[in-house]
Amino acid sequence: VPVSALSGPTVKSHPWEKMLAGRRPEASPLSLNAPEDFYFAEFRTLTKLAEALDAGDLWGTHLFNQAYGEARTAGTGERLKRQLAIATDQRSRPFYDLVVGEVGVAGSDPFAREGSDVTLLFRVKQQLIFKSRMDKFLDDAQAAHPGSKRETGQHLGVEYVHLTAPERELHVFAADPLPDLHVRSNSLAAFKRVVEAVKGKTEA
Question: In the chain, which ranges are continuous DSSP H helix?
Fold first, then answer.
């Protein structure tokens, strides 16, 4: 098809192009670590994410549906936090505000009815303190689930810990792909996709 045929008056611009008016939207540094075909929601602090989990039926239903394939709202935030082995009680939130910057939630399919993946990405401001606390969350979760299984692995040189229990009430892949980035996911496939986005390459 001649180029002239595509440049005539019948070619319409997308409505978003008019709204942007030639401006290029800024992408946050944290969002660049999520695969481009994943949804991504960013919170300025982990406290804000925790408040969203605690308060919103719509948000809670969405995240619970991703993790468990069900649309229940009762205890949504707590169930997801237990699955990913994190704690965001009132006493922990000041700690997070000190050592964590932005927090992102990513996943491959926001409309899945049969359950899908949820991945949390933390931009860390104080690595040693944060790592110590997050490692303790894994240890505490393992102790709370006597039938749980703990394994280690690596993807593209990034070492990760996998901790899972029967029925997947606890099911997490945790790693530090960068010194200031911590990732926790309930899906190995999604975890690998995030690592590949961070590294800018795949196994191939």
Answer: 3-6, 15-20, 46-55, 57-68, 76-83, 93-99, 127-144, 188-199
